[in-house]
Amino acid sequence: MSTIDSTSSIKIAVIGGGIAGLTCATRLKQLGLQTVTVFDTGKHTVGGRCSSRTELVKGVSMTFDHSVQYFTVSDERFQKIVNYLVRDGAARVWNGPIGILQNGKFSAERSPKKAFIGTNGMRSVAQSIAKFCQVQQPVWIGSIQFNDIVQKWSVDRWGLFDYVVIAHNGKCAARLVENAGVPEIHRLCLTRFSSQLSSKENRMTLCSLFVLMVAFERPLGLPYQGAHVQHENLSWVANNTEKLKSDRPQSQSRADQYECWTIISSKTLGEQNKVPQEHIPPNVASRISHLMLQSFADATGMKEKLPDVCFRKLQLWGAGVPINKFSGGTECVFDAAHKIGICSDWLVSPCVQGAAISGLALAETIVQHINGNKSSTPLQPHFNPATSPSAIGDFP
Ligand SMILES: Cc1cc2nc3c(=O)[nH]c(=O)nc-3n(C[C@H](O)[C@H](O)[C@H](O)COP(=O)(O)OP(=O)(O)OC[C@H]3O[C@@H](n4cnc5c(N)ncnc54)[C@H](O)[C@@H]3O)c2cc1C
């Protein structure tokens, strides 16, 4: 791949600072483009669905991974990123035990793939990639418009850009491009929210997942740290306290007296109880938290034995995980006439690796365009089912 003269004044706006957007921006910079700005809504940090929360549990700071739980690697390009993350101290191997939980019985994975986690929770992965990016946050981009005369994009109050990268999905992306003068890109961004694919509507489809962050008064003594759960209401449980123990400084040893778990719902529970994610009505939060805790006790075989809960918080990922993926044969989407592209997990595979590869692919497509290749990628909205058996994404 030939790079760009470093004096280039080409300006690129990347809208979305999740793994896809950050990887795209970093690769653009590596290829010689210096004026790349990532816009992200994150109040505290970047990362989107690859993030963590710190909560005060009885005065003690506790970290919860509340979206990505771990990731695996099968692609050489992503392996290079993971090698960097490990060297940077942002990621490390997680030896678990990780497995499957069914009817209260845990079985370790038969041929486990190497699992990676962030060293200060999953947020450290996104933060480490973001070191190479110029990020504006918290910034919500509400409008973009292509100007045919100057052949540039106007991006809200941020001025003119030569290229725009849409690095997010769901309703926000569809709304952003609805009146932007790129109907084919808009058609691709239209989304359905469901736990099932529709035979009638060939659209990108996202499931919704509830995440319950819960701290118990004392350790549960369970012999595993993470498990994909086969239960009508749950899909995953993980013990954050044990998972992140070796990365915690000695000064935070008080964190070990409680035990923090992340409990993730099934797709069906998310769909059947969907509410606006920004404002979960208190009665719904209470009912779903109670149901998920009961299901947790049931799935772990801890009925009647669960210690008291000293902290709990419920979150809904309305646009959680894609259950289908683009079948255009490319890892990103690019409209050459309008100099706009899309990168995100649904273009490759619903996981951290998929998002990163899509970001890399779009960066390289943009550089090829700058270097004279004026073709677009396929823009027809065709999708295939995602093949992951897990509600929380793919582990390639
Ligand atoms: C509960 C849950 C568990 C998961 N578990 C795993 C797992 O264990 N392993 C795994 O590999 N994957 C997992 N995934 C999937 C994984 O999170 C995603 O595949 C990946 O993080 C997607 O990255 P992305 O960059 O494509 O999108 P996102 O992470 O969604 O990033 C998009 C970003 O754009 C921002 N944004 C949106 N609109 C605008 C706007 N208008 N202006 C500015 N910014 C905007 C968003 O706030 C967000 O920060 C999980 C997902 C969920 C929801």
TrEMBL record:
Compositionally biased region (Polar residues): 374-390
Region (Disordered): 374-396
Taxonomy, superkingdom: Eukaryota
Transmembrane spans: none
UniProt-listed Pfam families: NAD_binding_8 (PF13450)
Protein name (record): Uncharacterized protein
Species for this entry: Lymnaea stagnalis (Great pond snail)
